[in-house]
């Protein structure tokens, strides 16, 4: 007789495969999940039994299966790699009673030159089993931001999207005039004042093509300005270092979510991705370019902020440390800017968590609305 109950796996096949679960209740299930938009490929292990072949199921089936196992008293652990689908599945699994881990993306099998969803699901299940046995290096769990933290972070990323849109539209109009008139358009050409001068200078054909772009650029800039004001308003009442900018501080805070989650300075430096790569053995130590294993949005904000602080914060302790190297040449100066970006992240962590005052870091503090801080990112 066909069983109408929704199942995630052929439990009969799994239980008879040797070492599987044969007694219901208080079992420990381990799930390795390869997530797609509509489906989830699941590698499954019960206790220390055999890991069966991974199979594809709908998300609602997976959630229902977890609820059924939890109702029977079983413990369910699940893991999947961080991806563009956010943390919705994590929230649903946690609400269903599972212990869910989201790990950083990784190369799951270093030996085989084959990769597919079923292999990934099974390999994640293997790593989860080892991780639960105490091998902490098998997975690299990430901190799951709250809904409020996700939404604040998204404000900054939406602003970056609209900023790129303005640049793309302006470049499109510039390329159009270069092609048809062998003339370019200056920066900000779609602004009301500049367009009054530039518009009559263009041929009728080019002007007709540019007019819709002008409307799009102005609408996009209005959206960009709205987001900028909303982001700056989050730190409007604070006093922040001169030259850093209310916008930059708010954007970095939004990306980091919670400065207190870092237990030591090395964790902060690693999060920025500004740590040097290394290839050392024995007594030979070799360092290379930065590894970029971190938050790229924070890294860009920090590097841009460093150049402003070098001008507006002459007493910054990190500037004093690298002052001689900053005078050497352009190439070394850029490398020092990256090193200073890592140090700036550590200093922001110290300042935001109360480990050091602005005066101890060599910063001059001003109101977020000070004219000196009108040099935001």
Overview of the molecule:
The chain is 50% helix and 12% strand. The chain is an alpha/beta fold and 377 residues long. Strands 3-2-1-4-5 form a 5-stranded mixed beta sheet. A two-stranded antiparallel sheet has the order 6-9. Helix 2 runs parallel beside helix 3 and helix 8 runs antiparallel to helix 10. It is globular and about 80 Å long.
TL;DR?
The protein has helices spanning 11-15, 59-71, 88-96, 117-132, 147-181, 192-201, 204-233, 246-256, 265-272, 296-312, 317-321, 323-326, 330-352, 358-361, and strands at residues 28-35, 39-46, 55-58, 75-81, 99-103, 239-241, 276-278, 287-290, 365-367. The protein is of the alpha/beta class and 377 residues long.
Q: What key phrases describe this protein's structure?
A:
377 residues, alpha/beta, 5-stranded mixed beta sheet, two-stranded antiparallel sheet, 14 helices, globular, disordered N terminus
């Amino acid at each position: 007789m066909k069983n109408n109950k929704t199942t995630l796996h052929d439990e009969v096949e799994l239980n008879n495969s040797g070492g599987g679960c044969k007694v219901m209740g208080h079992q420990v299930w381990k799930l390795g999940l390869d997530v797609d938009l509509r489906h989830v490929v699941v590698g499954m292990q019960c206790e220390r039994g055999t890991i069966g072949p991974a199979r594809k199921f709908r998300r609602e089936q997976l959630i229902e299966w977890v609820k059924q196992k939890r109702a029977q008293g079983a413990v369910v652990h699940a893991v999947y790699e961080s991806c563009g689908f956010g943390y919705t599945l994590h929230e649903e699994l946690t609400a269903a009673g599972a212990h869910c881990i989201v790990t950083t993306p990784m190369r799951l099998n270093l030996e085989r030159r084959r990769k597919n969803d079923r292999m990934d699901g099974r390999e994640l299940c293997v790593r989860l089993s080892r991780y639960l046995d105490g091998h902490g290096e098998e997975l690299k769990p990430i901190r799951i931001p709250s809904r409020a933290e996700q939404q604040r972070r998204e404000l900054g990323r939406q602003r970056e999207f609209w900023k790129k849109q303005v640049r793309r539209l302006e470049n499109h109009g510039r390329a159009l005039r270069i092609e048809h008139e062998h003339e370019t358009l200056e920066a900000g050409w779609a602004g009301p004042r500049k367009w009054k001068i530039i518009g009559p200078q263009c041929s009728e054909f080019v002007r007709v093509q540019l007019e819709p772009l002008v409307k799009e650029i102005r609408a996009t800039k209005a959206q960009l300005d709205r987001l900028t004001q909303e982001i700056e308003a989050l730190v409007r009442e604070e006093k922040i270092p001169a030259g850093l900018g209310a916008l930059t501080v708010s954007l970095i805070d939004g990306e980091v979510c919670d400065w207190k989650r870092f237990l030591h300075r090395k964790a902060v430096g690693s999060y920025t991705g500004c740590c040097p790569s290394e290839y050392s053995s024995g007594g030979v130590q070799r360092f290379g370019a930065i590894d970029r294993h971190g938050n790229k949005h924070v890294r860009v904000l920090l590097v841009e902020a460093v150049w402003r602080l070098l001008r507006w914060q002459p007493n910054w302790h990190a500037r004093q440390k690298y002052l001689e190297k900053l005078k050497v040449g352009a190439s070394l100066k850029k490398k020092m800017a990256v090193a200073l970006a890592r140090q700036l992240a550590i200093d922001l962590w110290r300042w935001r968590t109360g480990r050091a005052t602005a005066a101890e870091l060599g910063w001059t503090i001003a109101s977020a609305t000070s004219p000196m801080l009108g040099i935001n990112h």
